[in-house]
Each structure stands twice: as C-alpha cells, then as structure tokens.
Specification:
Distance between the termini: 13 Å
Structural class: alpha+beta
Number of strands: 8
CATH class: Mainly Beta
Number of helices: 2
Order of helices and strands: EEEEHEEEEH
Helix content: 25-40%
Radius of gyration: 14 Å
CATH superfamily: Transcriptional Coactivator Pc4, Chain A
Number of domains: 1
Strand content: 35-45%
CATH architecture: Roll
C-alpha cells in the first residue's frame, strides 16, 4: 500500500520483513516495524482527540502547543486552529535506536490522516 504527495510518502510492504513501513518527508526517510507503526498510530489518535477537544474554542490565529508522551513515542503538535506541524521523537523500548522526525505544515495533517487510514485498512 502506498500513499504519496510531492513532499511525503508512506509505504506498507509486509513482505519486506521486520521494517515493513516507510515514512518519507522531504529529504529523509525512516523505516518502522509493525508494532512501532501501530504505537505511532495510537499516539496520533490520542493527539488528534486532544486537539479536537479544544479546536472549537480556539480563535483562528491563536497558537497552540500540545505534547504527549506514550512510550516509545513523544509528540509535539504546534500551530494554529487550521494549520499545525508535528515533531515526533522515538526511542525504542530495547534502547537499540532512536530518531526525531519533523512534519511541517501541511504535511503533518495529511500524513497523520494517511497513517490512520493505512493502519485501519489492515486486516
């Protein structure tokens, strides 16, 4: 399964083995294991839920910052009511690897939606 726009790409290829999900944004990419991708999906759901709880109370130009830590992920949403970016930090539970991702406006909202759609389409 593939979702792609000009500045980002999301690929699921279960046949690939251990690292079967790829997220590319601009000039970098990272591969995730299935359980890492699932935990990212759950983190993004929680972040989106918190954002939706306060979105209607925000003025259009009001700045917002939401932070969530749900090991092995940390997420920070920053922006306004209708446009925001995401910073994600991953540190594996086995402490074998760690990385940081930044998804700028408008990639953050589009990619979050596609991750949700991809995970929910799996059997």
């Amino acid at each position: 399964m593939l979702a792609e726009e000009k500045n980002w790409k999301l690929i699921k290829d279960i046949k690939k083995g251990k690292f079967c999900f790829l997220i590319r944004v601009n000039n970098w990419a990272i591969e995730l294991q299935k359980h890492e991708f699932e935990l990212l999906y759950k983190l993004l759901l929680k972040l989106n839920s918190q954002f939706l709880e306060i979105k209607d109370e925000l003025m259009d130009e009001e700045l917002i910052n939401l932070e969530i830590e749900q090991m092995p992920w940390y997420a920070e949403l920053e922006g306004k009511k209708y446009e925001w970016n995401l910073r994600l930090i991953f540190e594996s539970l086995e402490q074998t690897r760690s990385f940081e991702m930044y998804w700028p406006i408008p990639i953050a909202e589009n990619l979050s939606f596609e991750i949700k759609k991809m995970w929910e389409s799996m059997d």
